[in-house]
# Entry
Amino acid sequence: MTNSEQQVIDALEKIGLSYERITIDPAHADTGVFCDKYGYPPETSGNTIIVASKKEPKKYVACVVLATTQLDVNKRVRKLMGVSKASFASAEQMNALTGMEVGGVTPFSLPSDLPLYVDERVMQLEAIILGGGGRGLKIGISPEVFAKLGAEVVTDLAIVRNPAEKS
# Structure
């Protein structure tokens, strides 16, 4: 288990909700590949995305959306951030900010001052599969965890994808 995965497990233990640890082959960590390989529906899988402002001083936020949707960075997230331009954080920025790698980013164990936004569709699920901090771990948990994390639930944070697109 990587250090970032252990930090996620430690954070989950402090939260106190039951969760499922899903150990996976790191080569299959990207959401679409994970769902295909392990038989989890994309409708119950989430992506945690770090967004960065384009201009200095840099601002960052974390957003959780369903794998069947696309984060609305240009309108919704940019407005929430209060910036004129925003984009997905680079892998280097995301790793420096969270200590996690692409394919394992999760809302658990994020920096405490990082705003966390969750698309309202996530809250309608019984359980969601999220990253586990590294590419070898996924976490299954109730969306009620977002209330414990102090997340803001946002209407239309994401746009429904064309079903032909893969996450």
Q: What stands out?
A: Strands lie at 19-23, 46-53, 60-66, 69-71, 86-88, 116-119, 128-131, 137-141, 152-154, 158-160. The longest helix spans residues 3-15. The mean pLDDT is 93.
